[in-house]
Amino acid sequence: MYFGFSEEEKMLKKSVHDLLKKHVPIETVRKFIEEPNVSRSLQNLIGQQGIMGMVSREGDKYEGILLAVAAFEEAGKALLPFPLIEGVLGTYVLSRDESKEDLYGEVLEGKQLLTIAWHENGAAKMYEQGDGYAAFGSFHGVPFADDADKIMAFFQAQGTGMTPSEEATLVILDRHHPAVNVQPLKAMDLTMPVYRVEVANYPVTVADIVLQPGDGQALRQEMQQLGALFASAELLGLSDAVLYKTVEYTKVRKQFGQEIGKFQALKHMAADMYVMLESSRVAIIYGGWAMEEGTEPESVSIAKAYASEAAQEITGMAIQMHGGIGYTWESDLHLFFKRARRLSGAFGDIFSHRERVLQAVLQQIGG
What we know:
Layout: H1 7-23, H2 26-34, H3 40-49, E1 56-58, E2 61-63, H4 65-78, H5 84-95, H6 101-108, E3 114-117, E4 119-120, E5 125-129, E6 132-143, E7 150-158, E8 168-174, E9 180-185, E10 194-204, H7 216-252, E11 254-255, E12 258-259, H8 264-293, H9 298-321, H10 333-345, H11 350-366
Parallel strand pairs: 3-7, 5-7
Antiparallel strand pairs: 1-2, 4-6, 5-6, 6-10, 7-8, 9-10, 11-12
Helix pairs in contact: 1-4, 4-7, 5-6, 5-7, 7-8, 7-9, 7-10, 8-9, 9-10, 9-11
């Protein structure tokens, strides 16, 4: 069986590549670092490409996973300063709730910017109040929260008669509501600004809840699984870009009267980087195929663990091969290095995904 991109997926990949090459060159990324505001024109362009609505689900099987993987690989190459993972996941979840058709269309078309609050500072809760709820919670590390129009967050619904394991609920918050306070946080990856979001006595109506109260736990696990695969694809893309930049540099940098690319030690390093890159690609495409087929969920953990470690190794070796210039602010390598470190810990770090693979193997042996 062939595991690779179909012609349709290759066409989308090229389309996204051309879009980002034209509108998000590295100079634009650096400008974003100085003025971290999401470009609304870029948001509209992404909407016009239909990137947000690539993923759908029918029963236990997905459609469009590998399309999304192809797009996220290109986003990683460009260091795209945009909440693309959150946008795609949020749009996918909205597509499953018929009552959210209007918001789904606006996010899909790039008219509304959506992000997701993944990490709570303690339990975020909402209490029954009249015909709805009052929500309270604190979230940290919310990407692009200041630019977002809507923020998805998980709350525990109190007083509903559900057990603690059933009460998790996904809620859509209006970023501009006075009950929502957003504060910037310091982050290593300056291409992906993060914020603390405080929610106090936010009025939640039935229209703000995705699906039904208590459906959030299963949704969260599913979104985390998809997010791990998409983050792996971004890691693949940035690793690919770094390897290309490094090989090109070794062709022009001279030492002792010859190009450093001719030195045997650097040839071996480049070969090792290439093997890690292509091994990541195989694992990620297989993980995407497995998700589309509704089988082998541990394959995503294999891809995330391997791609995370490989990206850290590749970006680190690239800095070494650039010598003294690799450590400077003027070099773009540190931007890729920092993005790799951030994505490696997102949606589960290397060790947590290895643990999942181990548990899956032990379960199969025990079964």
